[in-house]
Amino acid sequence: MVQSVLEKIKQESKIWLSSPHMSGREIEFVKDAFDTNWVAPLGPHVNGFEEDLANYLNEDVHVGATNSGTAALHLALILLNIGKGDEVICQSLTFSASANPIVYQGATPIFVDSEQDTWNISPQYLETAIEERIKKGKKPKAIILVHLYGMPCKIEEILKIAAKYEVHVIEDAAEALGSTYFDRKLGTFGEIAILSFNGNKIITTSGGGAIVSKNNKYIEKARFLATQARDAAPHYEHSHIGYNYRLSNICAGIGRGQMLVLDERVEERRKIHYNYRSLLKTIPGITFQEELNGMFSNRWLTVIQLNSKATPNNITREQLRLSLEYENIESRPVWKPMHLQPVFRDALYFGEDVCENLFKNGLCLPSGSNISKDHFERVSSNILSLCS
Ligand SMILES: *Cc1c(COP(=O)(O)O)cnc(C)c1O
């Protein structure tokens, strides 16, 4: 009894990194799905959610809703005919879901280092990687760009390189819905892009994703493959291998309710980011991810770098993380680079140690748009007291 009461208090006072934040309107869409008995994969909310997303992203894109961002990325690789023997370049500093689908297709990932400003793929090492592979007679077939924590990568430079060598560009905008680059929404730059609506992302469908492209042929084919690749016939006829990757009408209903507040969520996350910034600006050795000219980040997560040579008492990333954990505050190291993961230990890597150091010194702070004032103060006073 005492144990469970203590557990309950602990749960209630826990401060999460990024938790679902409902608008209250989702339930209307979900109720409508029940009332009309569209409790099915596919249905009017799926179509509606796809339209909402396409309108939001603008640029005449088409959208196919999937049951995860990972599924969307897998479909993107299939649509670009990436398979056995092909090589695909991916930024090393990312979540494993950016790279896993390459392996699902029997292709080989090639990892590239980050640059220091945005923490995203280094244009310089990207070009080196392409040239080195061409010398070996293995021109990479595609590049997977990632906008880490919502921060746009150096899009213009990278698209130039991709065009120069004629390599497909897939944009992993899973963390970057609502971010822009020279006023154009992320998720509209790649030949194909993907989004995620997992529980901790800027908006959620409890689980879900989307594939985005200006080329409607890709999206139509993605929808076909995602519903078991069923050919037009009264019986079940198949001339392709299919997948069960579509979003359900219920989840899409949640997504429609979330789309109503997406811009508010971006504003709230950016506000949290600026609060952290003004609070921590006097602490030496702490730096942030920086928006360069034309970049606007949704600030999905606020992430700091701790240079322990400069921080007070030489506080390290791990000391701060443990101290927050002790106070029941969830924080998380930056993504561990893929080329350092045991599962990818044999993969090729081009770069130096930029992403390795970003991982070593980087900590994601609680950034949920629903963090209360009290909770934000608890996090900040903990950081300040440790770093003074
Ligand atoms: C979340 C995420 C994904 C995968 O999305 P899911 O919906 O969880 O499958 C892919 N790439 C990045 C960078 C992500 O953060």
Topology at a glance:
Layout: H1 2-13, H2 26-35, H3 44-57, E1 62-66, H4 69-79, E2 87-91, H5 100-104, E3 108-112, H6 123-135, E4 142-146, H7 155-165, E5 168-172, E6 180-181, E7 184-185, E8 192-196, E9 209-213, H8 216-226, H9 249-259, H10 262-280, E10 286-288, E11 295-296, E12 302-306, H11 317-326, E13 332-333, E14 348-350, H12 354-361, E15 362-365, H13 373-386
Parallel strand pairs: 2-3, 2-4, 3-14, 4-5, 5-8
Antiparallel strand pairs: 1-9, 6-7, 6-11, 8-9, 10-12, 12-15, 13-15
Helix pairs in contact: 2-9, 3-9, 4-8, 6-7, 10-13
Bound molecules: pyridoxal-5'-phosphate.
Tags for this entry?
Aspartate Aminotransferase, domain 1; four-stranded antiparallel sheet; 38% helix; globular; 388 residues; 2 domains; 15% strand; eight-stranded mixed sheet
Mind telling me the CATH superfamily name of the largest domain?
A: Type I PLP-dependent aspartate aminotransferase-like (Major domain)
| Class from helix and strand fractions | alpha/beta
CATH class of the largest domain: Alpha Beta
CATH architecture of the largest domain: 3-Layer(aba) Sandwich
Strand arrangement in the largest pleated sheet: 1-9-8-5-4-2-3-14
Low-pLDDT segments: none
- Helix-strand pattern: HHHEHEHEHEHEEEEEHHHEEEHEEHEH
Question: How would you describe the shape?
Answer: globular
Radius of gyration from the alpha-carbon trace, in angstroms: 21 Å
Describe the largest sheet: 8 strands, mixed
Helix content: 25-40%
What does this structure look like?
The structure is a single chain. The protein is α/β, with parallel strands linked by helices. The protein folds into two domains: 2-17 and 263-387, Aspartate Aminotransferase, domain 1 (Alpha-Beta Complex); 26-261, Aspartate Aminotransferase, domain 2 (3-Layer(aba) Sandwich), CATH 3.40.640.10. Helix content is 38%, strand content 15%. It has helices spanning 2-13, 26-35, 44-57, 69-79, 100-104, 123-135, 155-165, 216-226, 249-259, 262-280, 317-326, 354-361, 373-386; strands spanning 62-66, 87-91, 108-112, 142-146, 168-172, 180-181, 184-185, 192-196, 209-213, 286-288, 295-296, 302-306, 332-333, 348-350, 362-365. The strands form three sheets. The chain has an eight-stranded mixed β-sheet, sandwiched between helices. Strands 10-12-15-13 form a four-stranded antiparallel β-sheet. A three-stranded antiparallel β-sheet has the order 7-6-11, with no helix packed on it. Helix 2 runs antiparallel to helix 9 (249-259), helix 4 (69-79) crosses helix 8 (216-226) and helix 10 (262-280) runs parallel beside helix 13 (373-386). It is globular. 47% of the residues are buried. The model has no long low-confidence stretch (mean pLDDT 95). The protein binds pyridoxal-5'-phosphate (PLP). Pyridoxal-5'-phosphate (PLP) is lined by residues 68-70, 94-95, 97-98, 146, 172, 174-175, 196, 198, 209. Pyridoxal-5'-phosphate binds next to helix 4.
